[in-house]
Amino acid sequence: MAKMAGLGCEPVVGSLAPSKKREYRVTNRLQEGKRPIYAVVFNFVDSRYFNVFATVGGNRVTVYQCLEGGVIAVLQSYIDEDKDESFYTVSWACNIDGTPFLVAGGINGIIRVIDAGNEKIHKSFVGHGDSINEIRTQALKPSLVVSASKDESVRLWNVHTGICILIFAGAGGHRNEVLSVDFHPSDMYRIASCGMDNTVKIWSMKEFWTYVEKSFTWTDLPSKFPTKYVQFPTFIASVHSNYVDCNRWLGDFLLSKSVDNEIVLWEPKMKEQSPGEGSVDILQKYPVPECDIWFIKFSCDFHFNAAAIGNREGKIYVWELQSSPPVLIARLSHIQSKSPIRQTAMSFDGSTILSCCEDGTIWRWDTVATS
Amino acid sequence: MMVSKSSDSASKLRKSHAEQASDEFGNLTQKIQQLKKQIQADRVLSIREKLEENRKKLEGHVSLLVSGAFSRNSISVVEANSQGEMLSSRIENPFCKINGFAQGSGDKEQINIQEVLFSTSAKLPYIEKIPPYTTWIFLDRNQRMAEDQSVVGRRRIYYDPHGSEALICSDSEEEIAEPEEEKHEFSEGEDRILWMTFKEYGLNEEVLNIISQYIGGTTSEIQERCYMLKEKNQEKHDQDFNGDEENGSEKNNLLERSLSAALDSFDNLFCRRCLVFDCRLHGCSQSPIYSNEKHSYSSESDEDGKPCSDQCYLRLKFVQDLPESSVVNTLHRPESKSSDEAVRTPVLPSSEEAGDVMHYEMGKRKVQKCTNTEPDSLVLASDDVQGSSKKQKSLSAQKTDSMVCEGFLNVDSSSNTEVGDIEFETGYKNELLMPNKDAEHLLYESASDKFRCPVDVPRPGLEDRVIYEAKGISHGTEVPVLKESTNFVEGQVEAVLNNSEWKPFEKELYLKGIEMFGRNSCLIARNLLSGLKTCIEVSSYMYNDSAALPCGAIDLPSSFSEDNNKVDAEFMERETPTRSRLIRRRGRTRKLKYSWKSAGHPSMWKRIAGGKNQSCKQYKPCGCQPMCGKQCPCLHNGTCCEKYCGCSKSCKNRFRGCHCAKSQCRSRQCPCFAAGRECDPDVCRNCWVSCGDGSLGEPPRQGDGQCGNMRLLLRQQQRILLAKSEVAGWGAFLKNPVNKNDYLGEYTGELISHREADKRGKIYDRANSSFLFDLNDQYVLDAYRKGDKLKFANHSSNPNCYAKVMLVAGDHRVGIFAKEHIEASEELFYDYRYGPDQAPAWARKPEDSKRDDSSISQGRAKKHQSH
Q: Mind listing the pLDDT tens digit for each residue in B340-362?
């Protein structure tokens, strides 16, 4: 589905002049080893742990806590016995009784479900045919996670029972690595995925929801579960002309980015009667200079008020998402932060921003009260 | 550039003087500017509104999520114990705390790096990872690639897995070739400007140029768009006035539509080869091929010469023939009851139950095979008939309508014999049946020829015998009760004869009926116009119709055959010369040597002998009527005519199957086998299958003398297992032991063009895994994303299997066969037959790339030992 173009379809482009609405300063900096850290994520699933975050790098998954005064406490650390594992992604989830889980995946293609409440491995999912590029949790039902993989599929898992419920691949699926996936904030049936085939695909699991429900009560072996293929997305968008490495829902709109130095906000306009048809209305653009390499992901605060994204040179741009035109809240830079920032994490209220870098460092930035 | 002279507003404009015009155009640019600004401002506003609306919605959702996050808190607090609270307790006692800079550090201040010292909470136990694969969909039969799956013309970007960030665009030799002139798409805003200008200034060159400057697109595009907008607005205008008028007509919509429109989805989506809608193998919109072999309709319909219902034309005839013409007026019952599938069938001639109407359920077609071979069931049936007017399911069990009719006759006759009242109306009968000489239902038989599933392969003799019986007994059975039945038949002949009520749709259905059943009003009314027209109506329409025609349309309606000729001509024109294979292919494909050596059917000898090394040609049914000439596309293409062709069975280019009696068609003595084809029960004389245990008199199951060359067709395949290969990546393994030449399974995949395969091959070569398989001159099989487990069988130059392309019912399919005896759970290998330069490094002997007999360095255990 092509973009709408022409007069009256222009997007509103945000200005790079900082608004100085908020000011952030570095309050801590950690070195986690030499290997790149690909993901950092706050726990948004359980309010007790809103200031707890996890990182993955190399074969290690680490859990930290942000304390007052820039203090960071190391809480837990897990090491994969396979030294060749290189985790790319991690997400918080939980058991149906509320026990916090960490779900991580990487180059080996094995999804590790870590029971952080008991400090032990809960389950390992072997099934993906290649590396796992992103894992996301369904906020409304946090025992459901989706994973995006190099094997060109997106899979839906129940971490509680260890079941692979659905596989989004096949005739209408991605034609190359899937790099990013996200659950719709309110519509439980809908997910969006994007990847190296330059497309963003929106999938619906409405017709397959009985399988999702069945996965919670399944008592037989997980391998016996009748996993279903979802072969056709409800919407395919060609918004970018290169790898799409991150996409997130903003209400019913989508934020996505490629290697074109910008995040794009667009509306998928579906035609009710004919699935697979429709158009893309590009609403806003959030410029991010020097952001032309792939596998750089952005993050939002809990309320989707702001998004933070790092760039190739170690700088962070914080955009106000829902204002029109977009407002650049702040541009974070530090003389020692030069390494590409792979992922950022915004805290619940956006007052803390974490960034993890290619050189294995983790940076903490906190807002300072502006007079 | 053309200037529209007919446009009113334009002519108005042209009247003005030159300076005035330029003045006005200046005005125009200003106006356009203004409107443009307005539109842009509107856009900004609308985005703001959209975002605001979205924000409000999102706010609601988020508050839900917040409460979710907080509720999880309370759940676990309730069951707070030491279990599952490690994270909380770690918060109390962390491994270590790393102090930060409470004040924050400015961007220029140096800060110290703080190493995190880890003490590991838990180790994640080692798990062996599985060999890589791309997610794929299981296919049990080949599928043609859907248009949108093509990678041709799409830019592909690669990254260097080692240099991590280097993006490499795919080499663009073919991409450059398609710089399609991009058509300007007009946005809503642009339409507004166009419409405004058009209304106020009309369309002339200058105006067009100005618009083109402002919104892009060529002037001709703009002009076209303007006319479209004008029409659209006109329509809108019209609709405002006539909005209400169109509602009523919707109801009769179905009947008002033409038959061809109603049959559109059937014609376009139904695959006549696979007998399914939306066939993924042959695609939709296949040009229909009409068979030359129409059965004549002038068969013996005599024995069926009794009325099909109480509104049968026979009653009309009968009554007309009666001396007391008084009955004529009371012929009809006003309503036609045969609305559903159950068709009313007529009165039976037993004197006690005179006038009793039997209901035969024919519509449901519950196929109970072989009832017609069972004399007992006939007796039973006739008993039923005698007893009461029960529904005769056992009789409706025949496979085709024609059979039903015959079976039905049997009953008539047997009950007649019992009543012993046959002689009575013989004279009458003959007279009665005279007009019914033509049509009879034999098209179904021809259909059954084609559509027969392998199960009801001819059982010569049996059927005939039954039919004979039926004919034999049915002499002189008919119609004795007609007199009685006419008594309750009411209605008016005049109404019947009134043709004006025939809707176009019904007329077309009627014509179709003539095509299918000949001039048999009973069958036409029953099968095509059920609920719309009665037999008498059809009959009278037929009478008038044929009176109108110069010659009686007793045979094929001439229009029909004309159609066919037309189709033929089109077909030939469309046929393009076969493209020669491109050799510049870089992708590796598995190749096969085709076996054309041995002699096949006499007429095929030449071709088979001559085409030693040529690749198979894709078969496409021809529609030649009545015989294939030199122009036959099959002949041109170098394929045989097959059963799906329109030409007659005696066509010289037809492959006539084999006559093998005992050889089981497993050797080259069988012409089918020799030609790389599977036997076809529709074509070969002695090749057939059956089911059942023989108790019903059908031939025994698989055994000696049975055809062993239909294994792909019948899917007589082995259980294949998927596991980690002993050689590389995944491998296919066999569950049970097999013998030499046993069929293991089919290599299925997406059918893609050679051009597509070239492009995909390049992509696959980068990933060093290709699932391409050369199928024939037109298609390559790609099992990359769709296929079956056999796609994982690895290459070996000393393999235990071989792949062979077989022609199965007109389609090329790849079968994998055992080259030798294979034990259970052995891994399967076959020779991919790479072209000389195509073998990947691991499949090539370092010093000798042509003779790659020890290609796999690790090899299978057995092979390793021998070296």
A: 433 333 433 443 443 333 343 33
Rounded distance between C-alpha atoms, residue B624 and residue B810, angstroms = 17
B557 pLDDT tier (thresholds 50, 70, 90):
very low
User: In whole angstroms, what is the distance from residue B299 CA to residue B315 CA?
Assistant: 22
Tokens of A216: 């919670």
- Where residue B476 falls (left for φ over 0; alpha for ψ -120 to 50; beta otherwise) is left
Dist CA A280 CA A11 (whole Å): 11
Nearest CA in chain B to A337: B107
Token readout for B19 is: 């300076």
Q: Write out the two tokens for B192.
A: 């507004």
Name the CA radius of gyration of chain A, rounded. 20
Residues 757-786 of B with CB under 8 A from A: 785-786
B147 confidence band (pLDDT: 50, 70, 90) = confident
Residue of A nearest to B132 (CA): A129
Let me know: does A115 contact A149? Beta carbons within 8 Å: no
Please report, for residues B173, B667, B697, B711, B812, the alpha-carbon distance to residue B707 in angstroms, rounded to integers and kept in the order given: 50, 11, 20, 9, 19
The length of chain A in residues reads 371
- Put simply, the answer to whether A94 touches B84 (Cβ < 8 Å) is no
Residue B618's closest CA among B590, B567, B581? B581
Chain B CB contacts of A7 under 8 Å are 36, 39-40, 187, 189-190, 193, 215
- Strand order of the β-sheet with B811-818 is B743-747, B811-818, B801-808, B829-830, B794-795
Query: Residue B260, SS3?
Result: helix
- Report residue B838: phi and psi, to 5°: -100, -15
> What residue ranges in B706-856 does DSSP mark as E strands?
720-724, 730-734, 743-747, 750-753, 772-774, 779-782, 786-787, 794-795, 801-808, 811-818, 829-830
Distances (CA, A) of B550 to B544, B547, B630: 12, 7, 35
- Residue B314 is given by DSSP the state H
Residues 6+ apart with CB under 8 A from B98: A28, A30, A71, A72, A73, A74, B114, B116
Token pair 């009165």 is at which residue?
Answer: B347
- Using alpha carbons, select from B353, B470, B465 the residue that is nearest to residue B414: B470
CA distance A181 to chain B (A): 17
Q: Which residues of A touch B190 (CB under 8 A)?
A: 6-8
Q: Which residues of B touch A141 (CB under 8 A)?
A: none
Region of A277 (left: φ > 0; alpha: ψ -120 to 50; beta: rest) is: beta
Residue type, A356: C
pLDDT in tens, B744-784: 999 999 999 998 898 888 888 877 778 899 888 889 999 99
Answer yes or no: do B104 and A26 touch at CB < 8 A: yes
Please give the backbone phi and psi of residue B444, each rounded to the nearest 5 degrees, phi first.
Answer: -60, -35
Cβ <8 Å between A283 and B51: yes
CA nearest B217 in A: which residue? A6
Of B51, B118, B216, the CB nearest to A322: B51
Distance of CA B58 to the CA centre of its chain: 44
Say whether A7 and B40 touch across the interface (CB within 8 A).
Answer: yes
Distance separating alpha carbons of residues B3 and A2, to the nearest angstrom: 33
Of the listed ranges B570-574, B632-636, B750-754, B831-835, the one predicted with least confidence: B570-574
Contact at 8 Å (CB) between B597 and B612? yes
How many Cβ pairs within 8 Å bridge chains A and B? Answer: 320
Name chain B contacts of A361, Cβ cutoff 8 Å: 113
B98 interaction partners in chain A (CB closer than 8 Å): 28, 30, 71-74
Which of B36, B58, B106 has the CB atom closest to A25's CB atom? B106
